[in-house]
Amino acid sequence: MEEAYGPVTIRDGDKVRKIPAIQAVHRAQVALAAKGNGLAQRAFLRIVQGIENERHDLHKELLKSAIEYKEFARDLERKVKLGLIKGDDPNVPRPEDVIINMHTGAVAMMHEDFRGRRLPGGSAHYPTSPFLAPTDPYRTHEGRTPATSHDADG
Questions:
Q1: Secondary structure of 134-151 in the HEC alphabet?
Q2: Which H/E stretch holds residue 6?
Q3: What pLDDT was estimated at residue 116?
């Protein structure tokens, strides 16, 4: 398997550079597909479909985890208020720190310890606003960003 990721030398315009063998093969396959090779087109579409399915599954998992965490955090706050458990850890994100935009599926972590870090799986950043970075841009409604309470025409 090491050979798949080993460097190969390619010509890229006027430059010569090294890239992983798997990337060189992928580039060649895309070039063949673009020229009309049916077999290469089908193989390329299967690869893209697999990647998109994986992204979608990761997005669903992130959304499910965010919803479950909000429920857990609310329950934890309730137990603290009732005196059933002791203390309040400022390092633990509160339910309001996890923002879920149900129109786009965007998930944002507003807690200061998480801002600017990458989400698990590298799918998106913890943005400063959940409406700026949907975790799955292909699943937005007609590419529009949902209205927020800050919009003038509300």
A1: CCCHHHCCCCCCCCCCCC
A2: none
A3: 55
Task: Assess contact for 5 and 21: CB atoms under 8 A.
Answer: yes
pTM over 0.90: no
How far apart CA 3 and CA 95 sit, in angstroms, is 47
CB 130 within 8 A of CB 96: no
Non-local CB neighbours of 107 within 8 Å, separated by 6+ positions? 62, 63, 66, 98, 99, 100, 101, 119, 124, 130, 135
Phi-psi group of 143: left, alpha or beta (phi > 0 → left; psi -120 to 50 → alpha; rest → beta): left
What is the per-residue pLDDT for 117?
54
Residue 101: exposure state from Cβ atoms within 10 A (0-12, 13-18, ≥19): buried
Instruction: Round to whole Å and give the CA distance between 77 and 92.
Output: 11
Question: Which residues of the chain have a pLDDT value below 50?
Answer: 118-119, 121-154
Give me the DSSP letters along 91-144.
TSPPGGGEEEETTTTEEEE-STTTTTPBPGGGS-B--SSTTT--S-GGGSSTTP
* Single-letter amino acid code for the residue at 7: P
pLDDT at residue 85 in the model: 87
